Predict the structure.
Amino acid sequence: MIRTAILHGGGYVGRELIHLLLKHPRASLACVTSRTYAGAPLDTPHPALRGQHNLHFTDPTELDHTSFDVVFVAAEHGKGAASVKSLLDGGYAGDIIDMSSDFRFSNVGTYEALFKVEHPVPELIQKFSYGQPELFAPYPTRYIANPGCFSTGMLLSVWPLHLNCTGINASITAITGASGSGIRPKPTTHFPDRDGNVRAYKVLNHQHLFEISQFLNPGISLAMVPVSGPWTRGIWGTVQLKSPASRAEIAGWFSEAYGDHNLIRLWPDALPELRYVVGSPYCDIGWIVRGEHLVIGFALDNMLRGAASQAIQNMNLLMNWPNETGLVPEANS
């Protein structure tokens, strides 16, 4: 049984990681830090955890850096890197899975242009591997940059095209629930403004579009419209383009790419529905070819497959365990 810790576990992603690690058959949750809730039980910000644990939040300054095998960093963008630096400066020698954007971009200039901040530890960027399990594992490093939620759905959807096409032009529309904006209230997540409404934001300029573009052929051009939807969790999106191949060939591309990956579920000749992935570790991908048109659809839980459960996948792979361990019942037997 390995020992794990979560840094900055008071938010939504921290909550999901806690749930998953408490029931993981091969990992124990030894510590969760939070400045805001230091000394308080984990169920103080996460009431659903009542009766499921005996842990209290630890102040980050009191963390024992040498007593864990894997640390998950759940700090917000811009603060993940500082947390990683503090961890390493304190003598930590285990594995790191960072949930922020801070180590997802191999080019520090791209990161600084998108987030309008100077990267605090650019020398650490090359020590992190981009953690899309089905595409890039096994990883060359023990430090993992967990992908973004939109990034996961988009990259998995277009990857078979990347493998088989030198150039395409595609338009992506992706709708996300309010939890994607984090635990802090803001006008765009206020119920009276969000309920019954859809709102586009960061049109053609969302950071997750640039995040995935660094892995794709230069001839693949993507235009993305991210949309805030009137629900709490889950992402549903489509990729629309002129079909580069026949219906049978497209089906073959997806089957070849993902037929052996059990946390990706394929929907041939159909688009997936959001309700079947919420609360699950799956990314569902479907496609429809009609004449010269191809539409690829994707659906995933932004808090799980787009964050916490994907981080558990990455921990499992670092430990050479089946990637679904602790995420689906049959993997726990």
Summary: The chain has two domains: 2-146+307-332, 149-300. The chain is about 25% helix and 25% strand. Residues 60 and 236 are 36 Å apart (CA to CA).
